[in-house]
Amino acid sequence: DSGVTQTPKHLITATGQRVTLRCSPRSGDLSVYWYQQSLDQGLQFLIQYYNGEERAKGNILERFSAQQFPDLHSELNLSSLELGDSALYFCASSVEGLRNNEQFFGPGTRLTVL
Amino acid sequence: GDSVTQMEGPVTLSEEAFLTINCTYTATGYPSLFWYVQYPGEGLQLLLKATKADDKGSNKGFEATYRKETTSFHLEKGSVQVSDSAVYFCALDNQGGKLIFGQGTELSVKP
User: Fold this and answer.
1) Dihedral, CA of residue B49, residue B55, residue B59 and residue B64, to nearest 10
2) Of the candidates B48, B22, B56, B109, the residue with the CA atom closest to the CA atom of residue A102
3) Measured between CB atoms, does B14 come within 8 Å of chain A?
4) How far is it, in rounded angstroms, from Cα A103 to Cα B92?
5) B1 touches chain A (CB under 8 A)
6) What is the rounded average pLDDT of the residues B29-38?
7) Phi and psi of A8, rounded to 5°?
8) Omega of the bond prior to B31 within 30 degrees of 0, cis?
9) What are the pLDDT digits (tens) for B91-102?
């Protein structure tokens, strides 16, 4: 158990819909990351937050957005969903978000868009 | 941009065989290098890391050495077990937390 929790575990929805994925980091970790794992794209970095502020952005679509709240939990919002958004979405956390910090990964949320 | 290339899988070995999974990277500067492991149905776990050239990361019998001259970080284990069956990801961090992963190598160890 990494100490990072993600809800829900599974999500099945239809094209055009909007969903919210939730992540609680390990106690004491200030930085949260979101990654997408799909068969065709592999594991891709989406976005990083540090203590409530966006710190780095990767290949995140404009239809996706995220935020980190004062209690440090984070939410990833996916809207106007397409079939290609079906993937496993991981959240990770680290102490400070620096280059050598170990990232601890949650179990993931599997999103299926029908 | 920065990138990581791993040998393609799946790799199938017998128990107690020697394992090598090749990983090479392209990056400016001096990235940190990592190996993560993903067991079926689980998230990724850090297996080992190295933060500068010639550093050797090791954990649970696995080793990898950061070779700047060949831009490589190959994963090795002298004697694999069935419980090592998983997907292994090589990754680099050059920008303060943004991990860039290779495509993953699936390892299957048969008794």
Assistant:
1) 80
2) B48
3) no
4) 12
5) no
6) 93
7) -80, 175
8) no
9) 999 877 789 999
